[in-house]
Amino acid sequence: MAIHASVLPPVQIDQVVYHAALFNMQNWHALAMNTDSLPEAIDRLFSLLEQRRIDYVLVGGIALLSYVEGRNTEDIDLIVAVASLDRLPEIEITSRDMYFARGKFMGLQIDFLLTSNPLFDQVRRHHVVVQHFAERDIRTATVEGLLLLKLYALPSLYREGNFARVGLYENDIATLLHYYPVDREAIIDKLTPYLSVNDLTEVRSILAEIEERLLRFRR
């Protein structure tokens, strides 16, 4: 039976981040110091985004949890315009390239997907819904938006040999497709301008394999 976002309890972001960090032994020393500040950090982050009128979209594992259960993540993932980073001096940018940046804010790790990437900009403009979280209402990628981002990333992850992330992303995609009716061909059509012919072929193959898994599960 499908689980729809409307029947899931609101996600409490600070608890998601805390429990993900709890299972990462490298964080145990810092965890005791940072736990109490997590709710304030998350509240201040999204308050800053609203006060500065930053056109952001929540993506990644926390966005996924607003649609399905069972995903832990220590990071806050946001799509923003490149210029928006200059309007958030409170966030310490620790790394940055053409399409991605990483920052720290009150102990939170924030991964930015920059709209210099045309697909990220497309998701920000056309695949956004306001989702209700325990802390507040947040601009969040739609199911289709999350699928576009994950399928777009997979061919590169295969080339990099990043087995752990490939498995994670493919499971995320399978879970979303299991619970939500999505037109697969429409997804492919929307990805077509942003991927090479070879990468599109790979995405089609990945989707076919996932569909086989879903059919076996449903039987």
What would your notes on this structure say?
The chain has 219 residues and is an alpha+beta fold. It has 2 domains: 5-141, Beta Polymerase, domain 2; 145-218, no CATH class. The chain contains 10 helices and 7 strands. The chain has helices at 13-22, 28-34, 38-51, 60-65, 82-86, 118-126, 143-160, 163-179, 184-191, 197-218, and strands spanning 57-59, 75-80, 92-96, 100-105, 108-114, 128-132, 137-141. The strands form 2 sheets. The protein has a 5-stranded mixed beta sheet. The chain has a two-stranded antiparallel ribbon with strand order 6-7. A hairpin with a 2-residue loop joins strand 4 (100-105) and strand 5 (108-114). Helix 6 (118-126) packs antiparallel against helix 7 and helix 7 (143-160) packs antiparallel against helix 8. The chain is globular, with a radius of gyration of 17 Å. The protein starts with 12 loop residues before the first helix and ends with a helix. Mean pLDDT is 88; it is low at 25-33.
Radius of gyration over C-alpha positions, nearest whole angstrom: 17 Å
What can be said about the biggest beta sheet? 5 strands, mixed
pLDDT under 50 segments (min length 5)? Answer: 25-33
The total of helices stands at: 10
**Would you report the number of β strands?**
7
- Average pLDDT confidence is 88
Q: What percentage of the residues does DSSP assign to strands (E)? A: 15-25%
Distance between the termini: 13 Å
List the strand order in the largest sheet.
1-2-5-4-3
| CATH C-level class of the largest domain | Alpha Beta
Number of discrete domains:
2
Helices and strands, in order, run as: HHHEHEHEEEHEEHHHH
CATH fold description of the largest domain: Beta Polymerase, domain 2
